[in-house]
Amino acid sequence: MCLQIWHIVSASLLVSSSEDDYFRCESVVRNWADASSERGIKEDELTLKDILFFLHVPRTGGRTYFHCFLRKIYTSAQECPRSYDKLRFDPSKPNCRLVVTHDDYSLMSKLPKDMTSVVTILRDPVDRVFSTYEFSVEVAARFLVHPNLTSVAQMSRRIRPKSRAVSTLDIWPWKYLVPWMRGDLFARRDARELGRLRKTEEFSSPYDMEDMVMPLHEFINDPIAHDIIHNGATFQVAGLTNNSYAVESHHVRSCVRKHPELGHFVLEVAKHRLDHMLYVGLTEEHRKSATMFAKLVGAQVLSQSEALNSTFKQETSNQTEPSSSFSDSEADGLNQIEGSTNNQSDSEVPSSTHVEPARENMTVGRLMEIYETCISSLRKTQASRRTLSLKRVAPANFSKKARLSVPATILQQIQYLNSLDVELYKHAQNIFIRQEKHIMQSAEIFIQPEDLQTADCGGSYGCPPWKSLLVIALLAIVVLIMLFLSTGRRTNKVKK
Q1: Do 362 and 478 belong to one domain?
Q2: Which residues fall in a compositionally biased region of kind Polar residues (predicted)?
Q3: What is the pLDDT of residue 27?
Q4: What pLDDT score does 463 carry?
Q5: In principle, which of 204, 260, 406, 421 could form an S-S bond with 125, CB 3.0–4.6 Å?
Q6: pLDDT at residue 42 in the model
Q7: CA 245, CA 489: separation in Å to the nearest integer?
Q8: Is the same domain home to 280 and 388?
Q9: What does each C-alpha distance from 425 to 237, 244, 308 come to in angstroms?
Q10: Is residue 55 helix, strand or coil?
Q11: What pLDDT sits at residue 309?
Q12: For 45, how many CA atoms within 13 A lie in the half-sphere containing its CB?
C-alpha cells in the first residue's frame, strides 16, 4: 500500500515538474519572440540600403549567387572582412558593403540595422535534407584517401598553418556534420575489412547501404541532425542556430526541442523577417529567382556603384584582405597524396578566380548573360568533383533519380521533422509570387539608363521625344478626321 502511494506521489511530482518546465519554457520563448518582433514604421524593403547581407541557408544554391552575381557587381574592396564562412564576423573594415555568410540572422546585431538590407534563398525542406546528407557524405569521402583518422589529423596539422584559405571544416554547419560523417565512414570501412558488416545487395538504394555509408534513415534520426539540420532554415532566419550571436539562443532552442509546440513562436519570427527582406529566392524556381535577383538586387547595386567607378582601379590595386573564397586544402587530402594541384575551389560550389569585372557598361541584361556563363562552368566543375568524391563510397552514387527509391515513410518522416521549415517555405513561396508581380508591374524602376533605347514606351521614363511627337500628330489627325466626318453628317441633314 505504501509503495502504491509512493508511486502516485512520484507521478504527481513528475507531472507537476513537467508542467512547470513547460510554462517556464513558454515564458522564455514568448519573451524572446516579443523582443525579436521588429515593430515600428515599415520602411521600403524593396530599396537597397548601404550594406547587403546575404543570409546563406546551406544547400540552397547561395554560393552560385555569390560567385556568379555578387562578385560580378561588387569589388573585393567592398566585401566585408572574412565575409564568407568565417563565422565570427568583425565589421571593422571601412566602407564594407557586402556580407555573405552561413551566419544566422543574429549577425544583424553586429551590423547597422537601418543601413542593412537582407536577402536569402529557401529550398523545399525535403530536398534540402537530401542535399545536406549527400554533401556531408561527399566531403567526408575525400578523407578516405588516408589509411586512418590519425593520418587525417597529422596532415591537418601540416597543412592548416601554411594556408590562409578557409576550409570546409571552418564553415557552419559542415564543421559539425563532416567530422561526424567522416568518423562514420572510417568506422564502416574498418568493419567491412573485418567482415563485420553485411554486404549491401547489388541493387539496393544508395540511401540504404549500411556497409558503405550511414543510411539516410539513421542520419535523420541522429541527435546531431535534430540539433543542426531539421527546421534549420527556420532557426537560421530566426537567428537561433547553435552558431548564433544571441546569448539566449541556446535556452530558446533547448525549450523548443523539449516542447515542439512552442516552435510556432520561432516560425512567426522567421516569417516576419522574411517579410522585411529585400529579396527571397527559391531554389526550385532557379531561372525566375535568378532573373528576379538581377532586376531587384543587381540593378540597384549597379546604380549605387556608378559613383565608385572612378576609383575602381585604385580599389583593386590596394587590396590587402585575403580572398574570401576558400580552398578545401584540408578536406581535399587527395591533393597531397595523389599529386593533383591544390586549386582554389569551393567544396560546395567550386570557386572561380575573383576577377574584377568592368562595371562601366554593365546592365541587368549583361549581368544575366555573365551569370549564365558562370553557372554553366561552375556546374561542370562541381559535377566532376562530386563524381570523384563519391567513387570512394561507390556504389552509393546519389542522384535525383535514386531519391525515388527512398520509401515514402522516410519522406513523410523528414517532412514531419521539418514541419516548421515546411510552413516557412510555403510563406516564402507567397513572398516570391508578390515579388514577381511587383517587378512585372513596376518594371520601369529597374530599367538601367543604358537600356532605355530598347525599353518600351510604357515605363515611367516615357518615349523618346520624336516618338511622343509622332503619337500626338497621329491623335490630331484622328481628331480632325472625326470632326470632318461629323461636320459632313450635319451638312447632309441640313440639306435634307
Answers
A1: no
A2: 310-328, 337-354
A3: 94
A4: 45
A5: 421
A6: 56
A7: 82
A8: yes
A9: 12, 21, 37
A10: strand
A11: 55
A12: 17
- If asked whether residues 445 and 471 sit together in one domain, one would say no
CB 143 within 8 A of CB 331: yes
Domain count, the chain: 2
- Per-residue b or e along 344-370, where b marks 16 or more CB atoms closer than 10 Å to that residue's CB: bbbbbbbbbebebbebeebbbebbbeb
Domain check: are 362 and 476 in the same one?
A: no
CA distance 312 to 77: 9
Same domain (yes/no): 431, 490: no
The x, y and z cell numbers of residue 279, run together, are 529579396
40-75 pLDDT per residue, tens: 545 567 899 999 999 999 999 999 999 999 999 998
Residue with cell 537597397: 48
- pLDDT tens string 83-138: 555 545 666 667 789 999 898 999 999 888 899 999 999 999 999 999 999 999 99
Record the cell numbers describing residue 200, joined without a space: 549491401
Cα–Cα distance list, 341 to 39, 344, 345 (Å):
53, 9, 11
* Cell matching residue 276: 522585411
Is residue 461 included in any domain, yes or no? no
The alpha carbon dihedral of 250, 165, 377, 294 has a sign of positive
Secondary structure (3-state) at 340 = coil
CA 1 to chain centre: 61
Question: How long, in residues, is the chain?
Answer: 496
Question: What is d(CA 31, CA 23) in angstroms, rounded to the nearest whole number?
Answer: 12
Condensed to tens digits (0 to 9), the pLDDT of residues 256-275 reads 999 999 999 999 999 999 99
Predicted pLDDT of residue 343 = 36
Cα angle 157, 325, 66; round to 5? 145
CB 323 within 8 A of CB 66: no
| pLDDT value at residue 331 | 40
Residues 75 and 215 occupy one common structural domain? yes
Structure-block grid coordinates of residue 443? 518594371
Q: Are both 349 and 484 inside the same structural domain?
A: no
117 touches 48 (CB < 8 A): yes
Nine cell digits for residue 365 = 541584361
Question: From CA 474, how far away is CA 488, in angstroms rounded?
Answer: 21
The answer as to whether 14 is a domain residue is no
In a domain, 460, yes or no: no
For CA atoms 161, 163, 168, 170, the dihedral sign is positive
CA angle, residues 457, 462, 463, in degrees to nearest 5: 60
Write phi, then psi, for 443 (nearest 5 degrees): -60, -25
398 plus 491 within the same structural domain:
no
Cβ pair 65, 293 in contact under 8 A: yes
Domain residue limits at 471: 466-495
- Give the 3-state secondary structure of residue 19: helix
Q: Is residue 109 assigned to a domain?
A: yes
Helix (H) or strand (E) holding 54: strand 51-55
